[in-house]
Design brief:
The protein is of the alpha/beta class. It has 11 helices and 17 strands. It holds the Pfam family Gly_transf_sug.
Length: about 400
Amino acid sequence: MWEQQYLISQQSRHPPRFVGNEKPCTSSRCISEHLNCPCDINKTSARPGTRSNNTTSLNKASLLDYLRDNLTSYFDGEKNKRQKPAVCPAENSHKWDFNCVSHCPDMPHLSATSDRAQVCIKCKNKPTIKLENVKQVTPIQSFPENSECISEFVMQNCYDGNPVPSLVHYIWFSKKEMNFYHFLSFLSASKFLKPCLIMVHGDYLPFGFYWDYLLNLVPNIIHMQRNPPEDVFGIPLGNIEHKADVGRIQALQRFGGIYMDTDEIILRSLDNLRKYPFTLSHAVDHNLSNGLILSEKNAAFLSKWFSEYKTYSKVQWAYHSTIVPNLLSEKYPDLIHVENKTFVRPNYTQLRLLFEMNFDWSKNYAIHLYIRFYKFIHDFNDIRYLNTTIGSVARHVLYGSKELCANAIN
């Protein structure tokens, strides 16, 4: 196609001519065959439509050389365009074409310091908190789940006039290593919610590289020691997921605050939702997701929800955790604020939008990554050029920009 366009354009004007006394040809054919041929076809006669007195016609071999050289330059140029896209303007949040790049700073190295900051809560008389420098190997503070000291601390330090305190909860039952997606969730909560504390409720703490890395970035994490609940209203709980469903309700009843699943990513502040006593979001029209919950302490809706576990059955996978709250919201609409899929979009029926495409999440408060369905584990390096929704979300949390990283494109 390119050759045809070139020949037509030349026929419509005038054929290029060689000028006498040229230097040896530098075309790829002359060089590859070690020829000393006067074929510098980049020079033409001085005036269009005229010929030099000392010229010869452009033969087929020379034309092929010309095409080969120019095609190489053309495709090199196209390659450079793809590899070196423009730098994004300062404000590019409204565009989702990912045709520009931004600078992504390197993540700090853990080896750069032997100490880190960590909150220390003292429970003598009135609870107090201070920030201390501790060794990297120092564990975070641990308190029993029913600690009156922590309950009092939350009442005194985590309320700002809203019914829902600025407090984040995670459930972490069983011994497991923190992965990259868990890390993103915790970091997003710290960055966009700015909570007074992040509580990890469970029998074990996370461990591994990403947990150690997180503690260097987020100093206000504490451990609330508890075992997984074994039953609810005397009915044995079937699996660890159902135990976590009950555990999150119990944590919110005791403290109030914001519960998050470990693969739920916060995208912007939730402060304007903390004015409601209780908030959930649809994932699909017939349910309400329990992966992100905002609740005041002992919220009326939360009590009604928990009471419904009197009919719990382990063979019903998500009935009490997602269907029941939706039914209750229709029965008691004055007790709950319902968001229209702003916590969980794309949902579990739209996983390709998460894993293979770029979804515009600009109107979301949060996004659920559904990592149990995702077969790839990413890290700080490859996430810089992962051109999917997961990639843009991760860069938003890590670097403050959803765009592909300039220093990941060579």
